[in-house]
Design goal:
Number of strands: 19
Strand order of the largest sheet: 14-15-16-17
Radius of gyration: 25 Å
Shape: globular
Helix content: 25-40%
Largest sheet: 4 strands, antiparallel
Length: 425
């Protein structure tokens, strides 16, 4: 059989490279089956997909994104809409849809919205059926009968987020000459038009281009990063691993427990506890690193003598990019960033502790109550000191003082500070 090859090349950009691993994993495990797909292969710094010659690269990329979008990026809203089913000739009630929180947070600019397709003329016989349907569902307030008396929607809602092919140009990420489009808020969340969004990378502008392959990787990267949403989904923490090669990055995600690697985007976090949120960058990093250590350190079935240590070593050898973002309406701002290359240093500290779970619980309670709100500034400073490997004594004393005013006692807190000081030497 004749075939074509579509390749995804490592870029050195952590977001795009995580997206390339996501493409590989979704295709390899069969979570999606785009039209014309035959095979996928991971090389040192390239993922190659083989497709049927009856397809084009553009149609394959579009089909891949459409499957991911339809099955993993949208969810029912709880409201319903009545549409006309042309096949059965009757009206039916279906769920309205919206983007899942994580995707909506990063990709919600422009005209992204649910699309009901073209309308069909409302005939007299259809009007009678519509009235019968209204009567049948009377009392259910969450049903929207989308009709103006002349036309009615005749298809189930799909999300209007097309994968538009670009024109030939040079990609700003992989450097190849290929079909490219301008970077915008709906294909790369870190670089958007400064006239529409404030952004951590606001020095970038629309002259930068992204090829169709890197664009698909960017749109799928949310499946291979760690995230935590807080403050009623107004703040977002991101953790991106970066490796020397795509094969090494794949190895990291292969080591992650399957329940983490395939955690649904419908939740507000894919690693930290659903019951607790962190608001600031440094405290989020420490909370994340503790949970990552515990997840990778769990003894698993068929573990060899050194399997656990290998997982921890592999994770700690990666470079890590951490971001904190905030959102007000449609305005997305990246207002915090940290780059960590010494995760092994933190893992050494965790390995010296008798019970890391107790430190996790203790860390959660290092908040200070002011009025009806819980403040986390001191906990964030405490976390920053740990990340910089500096003394905790003065900030620990302030935390103890503030907690004493609440009548609270932090069991084990002084012991940890002492252990930390001994470990620092």
């Amino acid at each position: 059989m004749n075939s074509l090859t579509v390749s995804f090349i490592a870029t050195g950009n952590p977001w795009i490279d995580c997206g390339i691993i996501s493409i590989h994993d979704f295709l390899k495990t069969g979570r999606i089956q785009p039209e014309g797909f035959l095979n996928v292969q991971l090389n040192e710094n390239e993922v190659t997909t083989t497709i049927s010659s009856s397809e084009t690269a553009a149609s394959f990329l579009e089909s891949t994104f459409d499957e991911v979008k339809s099955h993993f990026y949208v969810k029912p809203t709880g409201n319903e809409v009545c549409i006309f089913n042309k096949t059965s000739g009757n009206f039916k009630v279906v769920s309205k849809i919206n983007l899942v929180p994580m995707v909506s947070y990063l990709f919600s600019g422009g005209a992204l919205k649910a699309d009901y397709g073209p309308k069909t003329s409302l005939t007299s016989s259809m009007k009678k059926k519509l009235e019968k349907t209204r009567t049948l569902y009377r009392g259910r307030k969450r049903i929207d009968f989308k009709t103006d008396g002349k036309f009615v929607y005749a298809s189930e809602p799909r999300y209007n987020w097309p994968f538009k092919a670009g024109k030939e140009g040079i990609c700003s990420f992989c450097g190849r000459k290929a079909a490219c489009v301008d970077i915008d808020s709906n294909n790369y969340p870190f670089a958007v038009g400064t006239n529409n969004f404030q952004n951590f990378f606001s020095n970038l502008c629309f002259s930068h281009r992204i090829c169709d392959m890197c664009k698909l990787a960017s749109l799928m990267a949310v499946n291979r990063v760690f995230f935590n949403m807080s403050e009623r989904r107004q703040r977002l923490f991101l953790a991106l691993p970066q490796a020397y090669s795509l094969r090494e990055l794949y190895g990291f995600w292969r080591d992650m427990p399957s329940n983490v690697a395939t955690f649904p985007l419908t939740h507000d976090s894919n690693l930290l506890s659903e019951g607790y949120r962190y608001r600031r960058l440094n405290e989020s990093i420490i909370a994340f690193c503790m949970e990552l250590y515990l997840q990778l350190g769990q003894v698993r079935e068929n573990d060899g003598l050194i399997a656990r240590e290998n997982r921890l070593t592999n994770a700690s050898s990666k470079s890590w990019h951490f971001y904190m973002a905030s959102k007000a309406g449609n305005i997305l701002s990246f207002d915090g960033y940290a780059y960590l290359t010494n995760l092994h240093h933190l893992f050494q500290l965790f390995s010296k502790l008798m019970d890391l779970h107790k430190l996790q619980q203790l860390f959660q309670h290092l908040t200070v109550k002011q009025g009806k709100e819980w403040r986390t500034a001191l906990r964030d400073e405490f976390a920053q000191r740990i990340l910089k490997n500096t003394s905790l004594n003065d900030v620990a004393e302030r935390i103890i003082w503030e907690k004493s005013k609440e009548g609270a006692h932090l069991a084990g807190f002084s012991d940890f500070v002492e252990e930390y000081n001994l470990w620092r030497g």
